[in-house]
């Protein structure tokens, strides 16, 4: 009997890390992105090129899949307009294939919490355009599950960090500068606790949801280490690179380094994440699956090593 196909949609750090994780776990993996074809995007996978905003293309890309993982993203300033169409195309493709759908999600639907710890029971009180958009998408995903259209589970993560992660507040704006002795970015109040999700834990969490149909129909917080202040995170990185960091703190969203004016203009409405504690609790997932997050010190060491290898 042929292996079931696990289709990973999207070729960003989460999609690529997830595809590699699924291959390592013995699955037959299909990667789907808008690339130009040729070699597989991840070794050991079948590679399909498709525009996943197009329903017919999504149906073709997911043909024969048993599980689909939605890790597709678009340029930040285009998300509000583009993501609803991608959602509908992916849902249609999954429904046509009879596939279960695992969605990589964000904390945006919760909106400002006043620093309260975020659990899966936290109310969805988003006040921003992107937050309200994400909340509306999530409600549609859960309705698709409730109606029997597509079995769905949602895996939420905090800000990413880890090997391959560039476009993050703990990514390309921090590690290259830390290694070279140049300036690194800090946002808002560095003394507030802030959760960061290690990309390997995000991938493993999504894979576990994909392997476990009994967990469908709800939101899960993917394994995330206990929150530390950003200043503490910077101190850990300084210890790993052997020199104190030169941190420039942004009190408000403005262009800086890899984040241009277009990006920061779109990000400004979410800057509240750096002016109040952002603490995510993933204990429900950890209890259900018996797996915990990578310790922050270990994840940062792997990340520094990866950035060092990039030169």
Description:
With 311 residues, the protein is an alpha/beta fold. It has two domains: 5-110 and 117-158 and 196-221, NAD(P)-binding Rossmann-like Domain (Rossmann fold); 160-195 and 226-309, Alpha-Beta Complex (UDP-galactose 4-epimerase, domain 1). The protein has ten helices and 13 strands. The chain has helices at residues 13-24, 55-62, 79-97, 129-146, 175-180, 199-210, 230-241, 261-267, 283-289, 296-309, and strands spanning 5-9, 28-33, 46-49, 65-70, 100-105, 152-156, 159-161, 183-187, 193-194, 196-198, 219-221, 228-229, 246-250. A seven-stranded parallel sheet has the order 3-2-1-4-5-6-11, sandwiched between helices. It has a two-stranded parallel sheet with strand order 7-10. Strands 8-13 form a two-stranded parallel sheet. Helix 1 (13-24) links the parallel strand 1 and strand 2 (28-33). Helix 1 packs across helix 6. The longest helix has 19 residues, at 79-97. The protein is globular, with a radius of gyration of 19 Å. This is SDR family oxidoreductase.
Can you lay out the helices and strands and say which pair or pack?
Blueprint: E1 5-9, H1 13-24, E2 28-33, E3 46-49, H2 55-62, E4 65-70, H3 79-97, E5 100-105, H4 129-146, E6 152-156, E7 159-161, H5 175-180, E8 183-187, E9 193-194, E10 196-198, H6 199-210, E11 219-221, E12 228-229, H7 230-241, E13 246-250, H8 261-267, H9 283-289, H10 296-309
Parallel strand pairs: 1-2, 1-4, 2-3, 4-5, 5-6, 6-11, 7-10, 8-13
Antiparallel strand pairs: 9-12
Helix pairs in contact: 1-6, 2-3, 3-4, 7-10
